[in-house]
Write a structure and sequence with these properties.
Metallo-beta-lactamase, Chain A, single chain, 7-stranded mixed beta sheet, about 25% strand, alpha/beta, 9 helices, about 300 residues, about 20% helix
Length: about 300
């Protein structure tokens, strides 16, 4: 199977429109080596023609245009076959509304996420006024087929992040996905949001060949240090990279062929290619995703 990183930044992209932090300034004025990035989303395919999207960011139009165009089967033919959602965050779901011109939108989401998008944000209720929405329940721990020789298993990722809409803390509010190519047996894990690496989450990484993982913040107090907010990375539902219990220390020793950070906040210094933090990540055998990165698993 192929994985294509459509967007590698966290919400707001890089640079963020209303920010003048060191990273955002650098990407605008070219003073340090770095690349602009759109908001986080990944596509997976087994034939390089039909693609399944992991999250639907507000940048979905550019993301779809970046995918290979399949052989024409009609004037409205497009690459995306379905969208798999990890949560109900606006950064991961607003793009669904931009699919309203299609004949239907197939959405794979847990019951908790579906409930939030229907009764909390009303996003799916709004979309249903334009086109049919076909909900496929993503039940944590249960295998599900996408067709094309691809199946997935959603798994619960515990979080204490404040609930803005919908049901409170319950199973399936945030999930990761294990994606398996049925022909090769090779597996990739998509884990865009992770507050802590629990034993249950760690077990989902066993035998995977590629891990796409939450790299939102370098430090837990990153936004506080920059004067951009009063919440920690963990308070926003993300395990920081740095520190003795950070993701770099926990994940770099794992025997996974490729371990790639994505969902990177505009404040994170690993976005700057000459930063010492970037060198530390690479020296530990982990990668920093860029938009357009394609991985064959």
């Amino acid at each position: 199977m192929w994985l294509r990183v459509l967007g590698s930044a966290a919400g707001g992209g890089f640079p963020q429109w209303n920010c003048r932090c060191p990273g955002c300034r650098a990407v605008r004025d070219g003073s340090r080596p770095c690349q602009a990035r759109t908001q986080s989303s990944v596509a997976v395919s087994t034939d390089h023609q039909r693609w399944f999207l992991l999250n639907a960011s507000p940048d979905i139009h550019a993301h779809i245009e970046s995918l290979p165009t399949p052989p024409s089967t009609g004037i409205r033919a497009t690459p995306p076959a379905a969208v798999l959602l990890t949560d109900a965050e606006l950064d991961h779901t607003l793009g669904l509304l931009l699919l309203r011109e299609g004949p239907a939108v197939e959405v794979h989401a847990t019951p908790a996420v579906h409930e939030t998008l229907c009764d909390g944000t009303s996003l799916l209720r709004t979309l249903e006024h334009y086109c049919p929405v076909e909900w496929r329940p993503a039940v944590p721990g249960t295998e599900a087929s996408l067709g094309d020789g691809l199946h997935y298993r959603a798994f619960d990722v515990p979080t204490t992040k404040r609930v803005r809409f919908g049901p409170g803390n319950r199973q399936g509010r945030v999930v990761g996905y294990r994606l398996t190519d049925e022909r090769s047996g090779r597996t990739a894990v998509y884990l865009a949001g992770m507050q802590q690496l629990t034993a249950a989450v760690r077990a989902q990484l066993d035998d995977c060949a590629c891990l796409l993982v939450d790299g939102t913040c370098w430090r837990d107090d990153e936004l506080i240090r920059l004067g951009l907010g009063d919440r920690t990375a963990r308070g926003m539902g993300h395990l920081p990279i740095d520190g003795p219990d950070g993701s770099l220390e926990l994940l770099s020793p794992l025997p996974i062929e490729r371990k790639i950070y994505l969902h990177i906040n505009h404040t994170n210094p690993i976005l700057l290619e000459d930063a010492p933090e970037r060198r530390r990540v690479e020296e530990r055998g982990m990668e920093v995703a860029t938009d357009g990165l394609e991985i064959q698993v």
